[in-house]
């Protein structure tokens, strides 16, 4: 990853928040709306990626069978994957997103970190994020969103409560109670400022 991050061309932003707070929606929207000629936002949902690894054959997922089975077991038990195997699973995907680009990329790492240990291991093995964006949402709104999307048969009220408490146990916070446009403006406002070129114009993070 040191090669991919060389000369500060690429940066990483952690996007965290309770389940149902809209992390994935806002990151996807940013990845489609905020690109410029020489810079691109890329979205990686850690939860979705782990589900993909846990449900796919090891040979197709790019991870060994032992790790793939471990991920599957932790998902079935609704447990958080330990930091080291989590980073082993993420490394090839992050490298593929950042490693061969000819323009600057900001990776929006959605749903990571879930624990302090994961954050520390990530900084040691990959890079320090330029910013951590924490989304804030009323519990009843987050729960309604979580239950309505039901991406997995295990996405029930019990899992929401588990994930909700895990988040606040590990987190100290952009209000996202409004409509999508209001939420996205608030999200964009906290992105780090970048200079778009020699003229020093600041873009995609003015506040």
From TrEMBL:
Q: What organism does the UniProt record list as the source?
A: Rosellinia necatrix
Q: Which domain of life is it from?
A: Eukaryota
UniProt record, GO biological process: nucleobase-containing compound metabolic process
Taxonomy of origin reads:
Eukaryota, Fungi, Dikarya, Ascomycota, Pezizomycotina
The coiled-coil segments of this chain are none
Name the Gene Ontology molecular function terms of this record. ATP binding; nucleobase-containing compound kinase activity
What the entry lists under Pfam families is as follows: ADK
**Family note:** Belongs to the adenylate kinase family.
Q: This protein is called what?
A: Putative uridylate kinase
Q: Could you tell me which InterPro entries the record lists for this protein?
A: Adenylat/UMP-CMP_kin (IPR000850), P-loop_NTPase (IPR027417)
Q: Write out the entry's keywords from A to Z.
A: Kinase, Nucleotide-binding, Transferase
Q: Which SUPFAM superfamilies does this UniProt record tie to the protein? A: P-loop containing nucleoside triphosphate hydrolases
* Keyword Transcription regulation applies: no
């Amino acid at each position: 990853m040191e090669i991919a991050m060389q000369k500060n061309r690429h940066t990483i932003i952690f996007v965290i928040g309770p389940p149902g707070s809209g992390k994935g929606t806002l990151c996807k929207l940013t990845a489609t709306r905020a690109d410029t000629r020489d810079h691109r936002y890329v979205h990686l949902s850690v939860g979705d990626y782990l589900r993909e690894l846990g449900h796919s054959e090891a040979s197709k997922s790019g991870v060994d069978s032992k790790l793939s089975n471990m991920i599957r077991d932790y998902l079935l038990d609704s447990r958080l994957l330990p930091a080291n195997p989590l980073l082993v699973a993420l490394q090839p995907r992050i490298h593929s997103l950042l490693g061969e680009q000819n323009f600057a990329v900001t990776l929006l790492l959605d749903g990571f970190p879930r624990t302090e240990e994961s954050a520390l291991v990530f900084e040691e093995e990959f890079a320090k994020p330029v910013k951590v964006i924490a989304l804030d949402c009323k519990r009843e709104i987050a729960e309604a969103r979580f239950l309505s999307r039901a991406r997995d048969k295990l996405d029930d009220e019990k899992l929401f409560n588990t994930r909700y408490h895990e988040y606040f146990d590990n987190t100290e916070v952009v209000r996202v109670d409004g409509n999508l446009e209001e939420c996205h403006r608030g999200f964009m406002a906290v992105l780090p400022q970048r200079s778009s070129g020699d003229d020093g114009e600041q873009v995609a993070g003015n506040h």
